[in-house]
Amino acid sequence: MTSEGVVSVIANKRVLIVHDDPDMVAALRLTLDSVGYEILDAGTSQEGLQKVKETAPDLIIVDAALETGADLQVALGLRNPAPQSPYAAYRHIPILMLTAPHTAASLRSGPDEAYLPVDDFVDKPIDPDVLLEKVRALIAVGD
Q1: In a 3-state reduction of DSSP, which class is residue 11?
Q2: 3 state SS of 127
Q3: How far is CA 27 from the centre of its chain?
Q4: CB 62 within 8 A of CB 74
Q5: Pairwise CA distance, residues 139 & 51, whole Å
Q6: What is the pLDDT of residues 93-119, one digit of tens each?
Q7: What is the C-alpha separation between 86 and 63, in angstroms, rounded?
Q8: CA distance readout (Å), 113 to 47, 87, 118, 143
Q9: 3-state helix, strand, coil in the chain (%, to 5)
Q10: Cα separation of 7 and 35, whole Å?
Q11: Residues facing residue 116 across a β-bridge
C-alpha cells in the first residue's frame, strides 16, 4: 500500500482519548493527528463512555491515573459481558492504557484476565513511536 493509501485508511479511524490532563491530551493529539487519526477526547470516565456511544471510536486510550478508579470504570463498563449492557455493541473496541512506571507492574499482574480488561499498555513518559506502533496494531486487530 502506498503512503497515501495508509494515510487514507488512518484518516477514517477515530481514537478517543479519555484523560483529565489537557496537556497530555494535546501531546497525544499532536502525535496521532500528525499521521491522520481523527481524535476525540473526554476529561472524565462518564464523558468518555458517553462519547463511545455517540461516536463508536476505533480505539480508546485511557489513563491509568484517571480520577481514582475511573479508568477501571471505562474498561469494565465497555467489557461488561452482560447482554443488556448499554455498551454491549462497543465491547470489541480495543483499549490502550497509559501507565506510569510505578503503577504498571501492579496493573498488569491482576488476579485474572478480567481484573483489568485492556488490550495493551503504554508507559509514561510516552515515546511517540511506541504509541503509534501500539495504536496501529490495536486498530488493525479491531478491523
Answers
A1: helix
A2: coil
A3: 15
A4: yes
A5: 18
A6: 999 999 876 554 445 444 445 457 899
A7: 22
A8: 26, 19, 9, 22
A9: 50, 15, 30
A10: 7
A11: none
**Dist. CA 104–CA 34, nearest whole Å:** 27
Residues comprising the chain, all counted: 143
Side chain identity at residue 107, one-letter code: L
| 3-state SS, residue 33 | helix
CB 62 within 8 A of CB 98: yes
- Beta strands 59-63 and 95-99, pairing class: parallel
Q: What is the DSSP code string of 57-75?
A: -SEEEEETTSHHHHHHHHH
Between the alpha carbon of residue 57 and those of residues 13, 48, 77, 95, 139, the distances in Å are 7, 11, 15, 10, 10
pLDDT confidence tier of residue 43, bands split at 50, 70 and 90: very high
Dihedral angle computed from the Cα positions of residues 121, 37, 12 and 19, in that order, rounded to the nearest 10 degrees: 60
Average pLDDT, the chain: 84
Measured distance CA(109)–CA(15) in Å, rounded: 26
Name 42's bridge partners.
18
Angle formed by the axes of helices 67-78 and 45-55, nearest 10°: 30
